What we know:
Elements lengths: L2 E9 L4 H15 L4 H21 L7 E9 L2 E8 L20 H9 L2 E6 L5 E8 L14 H4 L17
Antiparallel strand pairs: 1-2, 2-3, 3-5, 4-5
Amino acid sequence: MRHCQLRMELPNEAPTVPLCCRTAQALLEDLAIDAARAADIALVLSEAAGSLVRHARTPLPHRYRVTLTVFTDRVRLEVADEGCGFDRAAGPAPDAPPLAGRALWLIEQRADLATVSTLPDGGCLLEAEFFLPHPLVLRPPISDDPERLSPAGPLLDAEPTGPYHA
C-alpha cells in the first residue's frame, strides 16, 4: 500500500508545537485531505504535543517525535516523547476540576482510534488513526515514475523563467 510519511524530531520546547502543527497542516492541505478531518488531526496533534511539552517530567533537554503517515484510506499520527510515561487509566476524569484530563478526552473524541502507552525505555507514545471520508490518490514518488523523470514528462516540460534563466 502506498503512503506518504512526515517525520519530525523536535526539542521539548513550547515554540516547537505550533511549528510542528503548521508543518503537518501544510502536508494535509497539499494532499487535499478532507478539511474537517485535517482540522481533527491538527487539533489532536496540537493537544498531544502541547501536553507532552507540559507534562513529560524529564530533565531538559529532551526531544519528542511526531510521525504522520497518510494512507489512501486513513491518516495515522504517532507522538512519542522521552518523559516518564503515562498510565491513561490513572488519569482524572475529563470533568474533574480544574479541567484536568481534557486533552486526552478530546483526542479520544476526535480520533477514530487512539491509544496511549508507556514505552519500554520510558516515555510515552500516542497513536491515533483518522479514517478518511474519501480515498486519496497518491502519486508514486518521482523515482518510481519514469514519465516524471523523462525530459518530456510533466515536471520538466515548461521553459525555465526568472532572473537566473536567460
